[in-house]
Amino acid sequence: MFRRPSTSPHARLLAAVAGCVLTAAALVGVAAPAQAIYGGQSVDPSAFRFLVMLSSPKLLRCGGSLVAPDIVLTAAHCVAGDAGPYTVTFHFGQPDAYQVGLSAPPIANPGFQAGGTDDVAVLRLNRAVSEPTIAISDTEPPIGTAFTAAGYGCTTAITKRCKLPTTLRLMSATVVADTSCPLDDGTSHLCGQSATAQAEPGDSGGPLIWQVGGVQMLGGIVATAYTTGGLNNGYTSTAVELPWIRSAMAGAAAAPATG
43 and which of 2, 125, 170, 232 could share a cystine (Cβ 3.0–4.6 Å)? Predict the structure, then answer.
């Protein structure tokens, strides 16, 4: 459920593991305080009904985005080395929350490796749901583009025991040059920077949301956080990964149910 460790002390994976104190040793990096999405704001989850929470006996939580009635996109490091079983929760923390399982094991991009390359996975639900989906962007948001990210990740510094919220949190950020996220692969990743907030453990797999013609689009997937150079996060680019995503979605749709 973690990416393989980087050799750098400045980039961290953002999956949250059940039963663990999330310290720098458990993630990757030096023990330094970091703001979480609590630096953003609480948000009405009804505006983000495509956003899900993914969990398993090993994985405390990751985020994900519903891109088809029975398909969720998340980060590969959320599911790497974890056989599950997985639970996908819709409307987490709300009176109408409900859970759905998977019909087949997650499909992680086989190119996934340390440094942020191809950090994307496709999940097939064991039934279709009637929630609204988010469209996958086939173009990258350019440098200078404002976007939002949302999740249910830790609200405490990364050196502290993780305190998890019961409501969805939202942050605003801007796409910046890849040099601000030097350890993420520049081909398949975007770099985002916020003046006040940062995604934290448990936010991995959640969406980078940008507006295209007034429509919410999925432009990236939350992957890493940095402890130097500002409140920066690395995001897997959905535009770069779209050919693999489409192929994996077709494979997931054809996969036999496992119960």
Answer: 170
What pLDDT score was predicted for residue 201? 81
How far from 230 is each of 10, 108, 192, 233, CA to CA, in Å? 11, 30, 10, 9
Contact predicate 27/41, CB 8 Å: no
Closest by alpha carbon to 8, among 234, 227, 229?
227
Question: Taking 60 as the threshold, does the pLDDT of residue 38 lie above it?
Answer: no
Residue 229: its pLDDT value, please?
A: 63
Q: At 165, which amino acid appears? A: P
The residue segments making up the domain with residue 109 are 49-133+241-254
Same-domain pairing of 202 and 113: no
Considering the domain boundaries, does residue 1 fall inside one? Answer: no
Residues 216, 90, single domain; the answer is no
Cα separation, 76 vs 245, whole angstroms: 12
